[in-house]
Amino acid sequence: MPWRETSVMEERLRFVARLLEGEGMSDVCREFGISRKTGYKIFSRYRQEGVEALTDRSRRPVRYANQLPEPVEAMIVRLKKEKQH
Fold first, then answer.
1. Residue 15 lies in a domain
2. Fewest C-beta in 10 Å: which of 16, 22, 36, 43?
């Protein structure tokens, strides 16, 4: 029997489908090799946003701790160009 390749999205869909069929969270999480916390997170996203919520999300931070606001940064760059010394 050849190896079957599945994507993360397909696995998450199978996971949610089994929960919707009435299987217990603990049993399904154990079979998929994920924690119950992760299982509840995936299922909660599905219930709130539908199938689109099962795609991978960006891990990029919303904001950077030491980044200046855009207007302040623009003002500094402008002043540096005006007065180079």
1. yes
2. 22
0.70 surpassed by pTM:
no
Q: Which two tokens stand for residue 6?
A: 């599945």
> Which pLDDT belongs to residue 64?
78
Q: Of 48-52, 53-57, 75-79, give the lowest mean pLDDT range.
A: 53-57
Q: Tokens at residue 5, please?
A: 């390749």
| Cα gap 75→69, rounded to integer Å | 10
Q: What is the mean pLDDT of the chain?
A: 88
Tokens of 67: 């980044």
Which structural domain, as residue segments, surrounds residue 28? 1-56
Domain membership of residue 81 (yes or no) is no
